Amino acid sequence: LFKTGSSAMAERSTVEDVFDDSYREKEGPKPPMMMVWRNVILMSLLHVGALYGLILLPYASFSTLVWTAVCYLFSGLGVTAGVHRLWSHRSYKASFPLRVFLALANSMAFQNDIYDWARDHRVHHKHSETDADPHNATRGFFFAHIGWLLVRKHPDVIEKGKKLELTDLKADKVVMFQRRHYKLSVVILCFLVPMLVPWYFWGESLAVAYFVPGLLRYALMLNATWLVNSAAHIWGNRPYDKTINPRENPLVAFTAIGEGFHNYHHTFPFDYSTSEFGCKLNLTTAFIDLMCFLGLATDCKRVSKDMIAARIKRTGDGNYKSG
Hints:
mainly alpha; 55% helix
Protein backbone atom coordinates (compact mmCIF):
# COMPACT_ATOMS: atom_id res chain seq x y z
CA LEU A 1 0.00 0.00 0.00
CA PHE A 2 3.08 2.45 0.12
CA LYS A 3 2.64 4.35 -3.18
CA THR A 4 5.59 6.18 -4.59
CA GLY A 5 6.50 7.63 -7.93
CA SER A 6 4.04 8.61 -10.64
CA SER A 7 2.71 7.69 -14.05
CA ALA A 8 3.23 9.63 -17.23
CA MET A 9 0.09 11.59 -16.47
CA ALA A 10 -0.24 15.33 -16.82
CA GLU A 11 -0.39 15.64 -13.04
CA ARG A 12 2.83 14.13 -11.76
CA SER A 13 3.45 12.95 -8.22
CA THR A 14 4.57 15.67 -5.87
CA VAL A 15 6.88 13.19 -4.14
CA GLU A 16 8.52 12.06 -7.36
CA ASP A 17 11.83 13.72 -6.59
CA VAL A 18 12.01 11.81 -3.29
CA PHE A 19 10.93 8.32 -4.35
CA ASP A 20 10.80 7.62 -8.09
CA ASP A 21 9.40 4.33 -9.40
CA SER A 22 7.83 5.66 -12.60
CA TYR A 23 8.79 4.81 -16.13
CA ARG A 24 10.31 7.55 -18.21
CA GLU A 25 8.80 7.88 -21.65
CA LYS A 26 11.43 6.56 -24.05
CA GLU A 27 11.38 5.12 -27.51
CA GLY A 28 11.69 1.39 -27.90
CA PRO A 29 10.85 -1.42 -25.46
CA LYS A 30 10.64 -0.67 -21.76
CA PRO A 31 12.34 -3.23 -19.48
CA PRO A 32 9.91 -4.82 -17.01
CA MET A 33 12.50 -4.75 -14.20
CA MET A 34 14.77 -1.73 -13.73
CA MET A 35 16.23 -0.94 -10.34
CA VAL A 36 15.70 2.50 -8.84
CA TRP A 37 18.83 2.80 -6.76
CA ARG A 38 17.74 5.97 -5.04
CA ASN A 39 14.79 4.07 -3.60
CA VAL A 40 17.05 1.17 -2.59
CA ILE A 41 19.37 3.53 -0.72
CA LEU A 42 16.60 5.51 0.97
CA MET A 43 14.68 2.40 2.04
CA SER A 44 17.89 0.87 3.38
CA LEU A 45 18.72 4.00 5.35
CA LEU A 46 15.18 4.15 6.73
CA HIS A 47 15.34 0.59 8.04
CA VAL A 48 18.83 1.06 9.47
CA GLY A 49 17.47 4.11 11.29
CA ALA A 50 14.48 2.09 12.50
CA LEU A 51 16.80 -0.60 13.87
CA TYR A 52 18.73 2.09 15.73
CA GLY A 53 15.37 3.25 17.06
CA LEU A 54 14.86 -0.25 18.50
CA ILE A 55 18.21 0.06 20.28
CA LEU A 56 17.10 3.39 21.76
CA LEU A 57 13.74 2.06 22.98
CA PRO A 58 15.01 1.37 26.56
CA TYR A 59 16.10 5.01 26.80
CA ALA A 60 12.71 6.40 25.73
CA SER A 61 10.42 7.77 28.44
CA PHE A 62 6.96 6.31 28.99
CA SER A 63 5.44 9.49 27.54
CA THR A 64 7.50 9.05 24.37
CA LEU A 65 6.38 5.45 24.01
CA VAL A 66 2.75 6.53 24.35
CA TRP A 67 3.34 9.32 21.82
CA THR A 68 4.88 6.78 19.43
CA ALA A 69 1.75 4.61 19.69
CA VAL A 70 -0.46 7.66 19.11
CA CYS A 71 1.52 8.61 15.99
CA TYR A 72 1.32 5.01 14.76
CA LEU A 73 -2.45 4.92 15.18
CA PHE A 74 -2.96 8.40 13.71
CA SER A 75 -0.85 7.70 10.62
CA GLY A 76 -2.48 4.29 10.26
CA LEU A 77 -5.97 5.80 10.18
CA GLY A 78 -4.80 8.15 7.45
CA VAL A 79 -4.21 5.05 5.33
CA THR A 80 -6.98 2.69 6.43
CA ALA A 81 -9.94 4.97 7.17
CA GLY A 82 -8.71 7.68 4.84
CA VAL A 83 -7.09 6.93 1.54
CA HIS A 84 -8.22 3.29 1.51
CA ARG A 85 -11.81 3.01 2.68
CA LEU A 86 -12.89 6.60 2.04
CA TRP A 87 -11.03 7.85 -1.03
CA SER A 88 -10.16 4.62 -2.87
CA HIS A 89 -13.41 2.71 -2.33
CA ARG A 90 -15.86 5.48 -1.36
CA SER A 91 -17.36 3.05 1.16
CA TYR A 92 -18.66 5.88 3.36
CA LYS A 93 -19.01 9.66 3.28
CA ALA A 94 -16.94 11.97 5.47
CA SER A 95 -17.56 15.56 6.48
CA PHE A 96 -15.05 18.28 5.64
CA PRO A 97 -13.45 18.31 9.13
CA LEU A 98 -13.03 14.53 9.04
CA ARG A 99 -11.52 14.65 5.54
CA VAL A 100 -9.02 17.27 6.73
CA PHE A 101 -8.13 15.11 9.75
CA LEU A 102 -7.61 12.04 7.53
CA ALA A 103 -5.56 13.99 4.99
CA LEU A 104 -3.24 15.21 7.74
CA ALA A 105 -2.95 11.65 9.06
CA ASN A 106 -2.21 10.43 5.55
CA SER A 107 0.68 12.91 5.27
CA MET A 108 2.10 11.59 8.55
CA ALA A 109 1.93 8.07 7.06
CA PHE A 110 4.01 9.22 4.03
CA GLN A 111 2.78 6.58 1.58
CA ASN A 112 2.33 9.05 -1.29
CA ASP A 113 -0.43 11.59 -1.65
CA ILE A 114 -4.10 10.63 -1.62
CA TYR A 115 -4.61 11.04 -5.36
CA ASP A 116 -1.72 8.80 -6.43
CA TRP A 117 -2.37 6.22 -3.69
CA ALA A 118 -6.06 5.90 -4.55
CA ARG A 119 -5.35 5.68 -8.27
CA ASP A 120 -2.83 2.87 -7.83
CA HIS A 121 -5.08 1.06 -5.36
CA ARG A 122 -7.98 1.11 -7.79
CA VAL A 123 -5.66 -0.36 -10.42
CA HIS A 124 -4.65 -3.03 -7.89
CA HIS A 125 -8.27 -4.09 -7.37
CA LYS A 126 -9.24 -3.94 -11.02
CA HIS A 127 -6.19 -5.90 -12.22
CA SER A 128 -5.16 -7.87 -9.13
CA GLU A 129 -2.28 -10.35 -9.56
CA THR A 130 -1.50 -9.26 -13.12
CA ASP A 131 1.29 -7.10 -14.54
CA ALA A 132 -1.05 -4.13 -14.12
CA ASP A 133 -1.10 -4.72 -10.35
CA PRO A 134 1.56 -2.43 -8.78
CA HIS A 135 2.45 -5.07 -6.18
CA ASN A 136 1.53 -8.29 -7.98
CA ALA A 137 1.81 -11.02 -5.32
CA THR A 138 2.35 -13.77 -7.89
CA ARG A 139 5.87 -12.37 -8.24
CA GLY A 140 6.65 -13.46 -4.68
CA PHE A 141 6.54 -12.15 -1.13
CA PHE A 142 9.51 -9.79 -1.41
CA PHE A 143 8.22 -8.10 -4.56
CA ALA A 144 4.70 -7.68 -3.14
CA HIS A 145 6.05 -6.40 0.18
CA ILE A 146 8.77 -3.91 -0.78
CA GLY A 147 10.40 -5.01 -4.03
CA TRP A 148 7.82 -3.23 -6.17
CA LEU A 149 9.08 0.05 -4.72
CA LEU A 150 12.66 -0.70 -5.68
CA VAL A 151 12.00 -1.07 -9.41
CA ARG A 152 10.22 1.06 -11.98
CA LYS A 153 6.57 0.41 -12.56
CA HIS A 154 5.55 -2.16 -15.14
CA PRO A 155 4.18 -0.33 -18.21
CA ASP A 156 0.79 -2.03 -17.71
CA VAL A 157 0.37 -0.30 -14.33
CA ILE A 158 0.78 3.09 -15.97
CA GLU A 159 -1.39 2.22 -18.97
CA LYS A 160 -4.29 0.94 -16.86
CA GLY A 161 -3.97 3.81 -14.41
CA LYS A 162 -4.53 6.32 -17.20
CA LYS A 163 -7.88 4.69 -18.03
CA LEU A 164 -9.40 4.97 -14.56
CA GLU A 165 -12.19 7.38 -13.69
CA LEU A 166 -10.77 9.74 -11.07
CA THR A 167 -13.10 12.74 -11.27
CA ASP A 168 -14.25 12.20 -7.69
CA LEU A 169 -10.68 12.66 -6.44
CA LYS A 170 -10.10 15.73 -8.61
CA ALA A 171 -13.33 17.27 -7.32
CA ASP A 172 -12.33 16.85 -3.66
CA LYS A 173 -10.64 20.10 -2.55
CA VAL A 174 -8.99 18.39 0.42
CA VAL A 175 -7.38 15.78 -1.84
CA MET A 176 -6.05 18.33 -4.30
CA PHE A 177 -4.84 20.72 -1.57
CA GLN A 178 -2.88 17.90 0.04
CA ARG A 179 -1.46 16.96 -3.37
CA ARG A 180 -0.23 20.51 -4.01
CA HIS A 181 1.45 20.76 -0.60
CA TYR A 182 2.40 17.15 -0.09
CA LYS A 183 6.17 17.43 0.34
CA LEU A 184 5.89 20.17 2.95
CA SER A 185 3.14 18.30 4.81
CA VAL A 186 5.30 15.15 4.92
CA VAL A 187 8.32 17.00 6.31
CA ILE A 188 6.19 18.59 9.02
CA LEU A 189 3.84 15.73 9.94
CA CYS A 190 5.91 12.60 9.31
CA PHE A 191 9.23 13.82 10.70
CA LEU A 192 9.15 17.16 12.56
CA VAL A 193 5.97 16.77 14.64
CA PRO A 194 6.77 13.24 15.94
CA MET A 195 10.26 14.44 16.90
CA LEU A 196 9.60 17.93 18.27
CA VAL A 197 6.55 17.19 20.45
CA PRO A 198 8.39 14.88 22.91
CA TRP A 199 11.49 17.07 22.82
CA TYR A 200 9.59 20.29 23.59
CA PHE A 201 6.86 19.11 25.97
CA TRP A 202 8.66 16.60 28.21
CA GLY A 203 12.34 17.02 27.47
CA GLU A 204 13.03 13.88 25.47
CA SER A 205 16.41 13.85 23.73
CA LEU A 206 16.31 14.75 20.05
CA ALA A 207 18.01 11.47 19.15
CA VAL A 208 15.38 9.33 20.85
CA ALA A 209 12.57 11.56 19.59
CA TYR A 210 13.80 11.33 16.00
CA PHE A 211 14.57 7.62 15.86
CA VAL A 212 11.67 6.21 17.95
CA PRO A 213 8.41 8.11 17.22
CA GLY A 214 10.02 9.29 13.98
CA LEU A 215 11.82 6.61 11.98
CA LEU A 216 10.89 3.48 13.95
CA ARG A 217 7.19 4.37 13.99
CA TYR A 218 7.29 5.25 10.29
CA ALA A 219 9.03 2.01 9.29
CA LEU A 220 6.66 -0.10 11.40
CA MET A 221 3.62 1.56 9.81
CA LEU A 222 5.05 1.00 6.33
CA ASN A 223 5.72 -2.68 6.95
CA ALA A 224 2.30 -3.19 8.54
CA THR A 225 0.57 -1.83 5.45
CA TRP A 226 2.94 -3.66 3.11
CA LEU A 227 1.92 -6.92 4.81
CA VAL A 228 -1.56 -6.37 3.37
CA ASN A 229 0.00 -6.51 -0.10
CA SER A 230 2.24 -9.47 0.65
CA ALA A 231 1.23 -11.76 3.53
CA ALA A 232 -2.51 -11.18 3.12
CA HIS A 233 -2.21 -12.16 -0.53
CA ILE A 234 -0.22 -15.34 0.19
CA TRP A 235 -1.09 -16.89 3.58
CA GLY A 236 -4.51 -17.62 5.01
CA ASN A 237 -7.81 -19.16 3.99
CA ARG A 238 -10.32 -17.96 1.40
CA PRO A 239 -13.77 -18.54 2.90
CA TYR A 240 -15.55 -16.09 0.61
CA ASP A 241 -13.91 -16.64 -2.77
CA LYS A 242 -11.34 -19.35 -3.44
CA THR A 243 -10.89 -18.18 -7.03
CA ILE A 244 -8.94 -15.06 -5.99
CA ASN A 245 -5.57 -14.77 -4.29
CA PRO A 246 -6.24 -12.50 -1.25
CA ARG A 247 -6.58 -14.31 2.09
CA GLU A 248 -7.97 -13.84 5.59
CA ASN A 249 -4.98 -13.09 7.83
CA PRO A 250 -5.80 -12.10 11.45
CA LEU A 251 -2.16 -11.22 12.25
CA VAL A 252 -2.11 -8.68 9.44
CA ALA A 253 -5.49 -7.38 10.59
CA PHE A 254 -3.99 -6.69 14.02
CA THR A 255 -0.84 -4.92 12.80
CA ALA A 256 -2.62 -2.98 10.04
CA ILE A 257 -5.49 -1.92 12.36
CA GLY A 258 -8.15 -3.92 10.56
CA GLU A 259 -6.96 -4.47 6.99
CA GLY A 260 -6.08 -8.18 7.09
CA PHE A 261 -9.50 -9.62 6.23
CA HIS A 262 -8.44 -9.51 2.64
CA ASN A 263 -10.42 -12.28 1.01
CA TYR A 264 -13.56 -10.58 2.26
CA HIS A 265 -12.33 -7.17 1.15
CA HIS A 266 -11.53 -8.23 -2.41
CA THR A 267 -14.85 -10.08 -2.60
CA PHE A 268 -16.83 -7.11 -1.27
CA PRO A 269 -14.57 -4.06 -1.77
CA PHE A 270 -17.39 -1.57 -1.17
CA ASP A 271 -17.95 -2.64 2.46
CA TYR A 272 -16.68 0.13 4.76
CA SER A 273 -15.62 -2.40 7.42
CA THR A 274 -13.55 -4.67 5.11
CA SER A 275 -14.86 -7.49 7.31
CA GLU A 276 -18.17 -8.96 8.40
CA PHE A 277 -17.08 -9.09 12.04
CA GLY A 278 -17.48 -5.42 12.93
CA CYS A 279 -14.81 -4.06 15.28
CA LYS A 280 -13.15 -7.42 15.97
CA LEU A 281 -9.41 -6.84 15.32
CA ASN A 282 -10.57 -3.79 13.39
CA LEU A 283 -9.77 -0.47 15.05
CA THR A 284 -10.47 1.32 11.79
CA THR A 285 -14.08 0.15 11.78
CA ALA A 286 -14.41 1.26 15.41
CA PHE A 287 -13.06 4.68 14.44
CA ILE A 288 -15.48 5.07 11.52
CA ASP A 289 -18.37 3.96 13.74
CA LEU A 290 -17.35 6.61 16.27
CA MET A 291 -17.27 9.24 13.51
CA CYS A 292 -20.79 8.19 12.50
CA PHE A 293 -21.94 8.52 16.10
CA LEU A 294 -20.48 12.05 16.21
CA GLY A 295 -22.16 12.96 12.93
CA LEU A 296 -18.88 13.32 11.02
CA ALA A 297 -19.40 10.26 8.77
CA THR A 298 -22.50 8.89 7.05
CA ASP A 299 -23.74 6.38 4.48
CA CYS A 300 -21.51 3.46 5.48
CA LYS A 301 -21.95 0.69 2.91
CA ARG A 302 -22.41 -2.87 4.16
CA VAL A 303 -22.99 -6.30 2.68
CA SER A 304 -26.12 -8.15 3.74
CA LYS A 305 -25.82 -11.42 5.65
CA ASP A 306 -27.79 -13.17 2.90
CA MET A 307 -25.34 -11.99 0.24
CA ILE A 308 -22.38 -13.13 2.33
CA ALA A 309 -23.92 -16.55 2.95
CA ALA A 310 -24.73 -17.02 -0.72
CA ARG A 311 -21.19 -16.11 -1.74
CA ILE A 312 -19.65 -18.45 0.84
CA LYS A 313 -21.77 -21.30 -0.48
CA ARG A 314 -21.01 -20.53 -4.11
CA THR A 315 -17.29 -19.71 -4.13
CA GLY A 316 -15.88 -20.27 -0.62
CA ASP A 317 -13.08 -22.73 0.18
CA GLY A 318 -15.08 -24.43 2.96
CA ASN A 319 -13.08 -22.87 5.81
CA TYR A 320 -15.61 -20.28 6.91
CA LYS A 321 -15.90 -19.63 10.64
CA SER A 322 -18.49 -17.17 11.90
CA GLY A 323 -17.62 -14.50 14.43
